[in-house]
Amino acid sequence: AQSVAQPEDQVNVAEGNPLTVKCTYSVSGNPYLFWYVQYPNRGLQFLLKYITGDNLVKGSYGFEAEFNKSQTSFHLKKPSALVSDSALYFCAVSPPLSTDKLIFGTGTRLQVFP
Amino acid sequence: DVKVTQSSRYLVKRTGEKVFLECVQDMDHENMFWYRQDPGLGLRLIYFSYDVKMKEKGDIPEGYSVSREKKERFSLILESASTNQTSMYLCASSFFGGTGDYEQYFGPGTRLTVT
């Protein structure tokens, strides 16, 4: 079955430190990969995507993610965390034969401490 | 900017009531989606529509139906609400089949409580 795993329910990091939110997927072929962020009581907001090309993609608010095909991973990173980055982050995958749909991970709550 | 709006932010209904959740998008997107979001489960697809009057079941369609009479509007219907349908409901839209940017754009969500 196709799936997306976010192994950490919560990630805690101090402001100014680098952050990583992990995502691995189990989808055959070459999927499209996405990260979304959700602030409290809000809908999901698009952060970045990998469709093809350079494995390192840059997105909104200083976030970036690296596509690693051999490890089937798409980890979200930021060099220096801000308290305002505290939110719920979702990784999503669009399978090659069904690119209109998204399969979501269960989400990782990022808490950045001052 | 793409705008996806949902008719209510918060809704409280009684068990057995018929519930309508409305979603409208202004980007001429072909695809529209209804998800429910529950803690620890992420987002699960309820129904998907790729054109007017067309619909496709998602992962958890039981207890729900949908209606798409106009391209910009997609309604989710709970025929007889039950307490296990208490959840956050998210609507999304996107272009069809790679003709656009592949992203889904989300509304603000409706938090439904069934008592």
Largest sheet of chain A: 6 strands, mixed
Instruction: Please report which band the strand proportion of chain A falls in: under 5%, 5-15%, 15-25%, 25-35%, 35-45% or over 45%.
Output: over 45%
N-to-C order of helices and strands of chain B = EEEEEEEEEEE
Uncertain runs of chain B: none
Distance between the termini of chain B: 37 Å
Q: What is the tally of helical segments of chain A?
A: 0
What sequence of helices (H) and strands (E) makes up the elements of chain A? EEEEEEEEEEEE
Derived from helix and strand composition plus strand pairing, the structural class of chain B reads mainly beta
How would you sum up this structure, described in words?
The complex is a heterodimer of chains A (114) and B (115). Chain A has 114 residues and is mainly β. Chain A is built from no helices and twelve strands. Chain A has strands at 3-5, 10-14, 19-21, 24-26, 32-38, 44-50, 56-58, 64-68, 73-78, 87-94, 103-104, 108-113. In chain A, the strands form three sheets. In chain A, strands 2, 5, 6, 10, 11 and 12 form a six-stranded mixed β-sheet that branches. Chain A has a four-stranded antiparallel β-sheet with strand order 3-9-8-7, with no helix packed on it. The model of chain A has no long low-confidence stretch (mean pLDDT 93). Chain B has strands at 4-6, 10-13, 19-25, 31-38, 42-51, 54-57, 64-70, 73-78, 87-94, 105-106, 110-114. In chain B, strands 2, 4, 5, 6, 9, 10 and 11 form a seven-stranded mixed β-sheet that branches. A four-stranded antiparallel β-sheet of chain B has the order 1-3-8-7, with no helix packed on it. In chain B, a hairpin with a 3-residue loop joins strand 4 and strand 5. The N and C termini of chain B lie far apart (37 Å). The interface between A and B is medium-sized, with 22 and 27 residues.
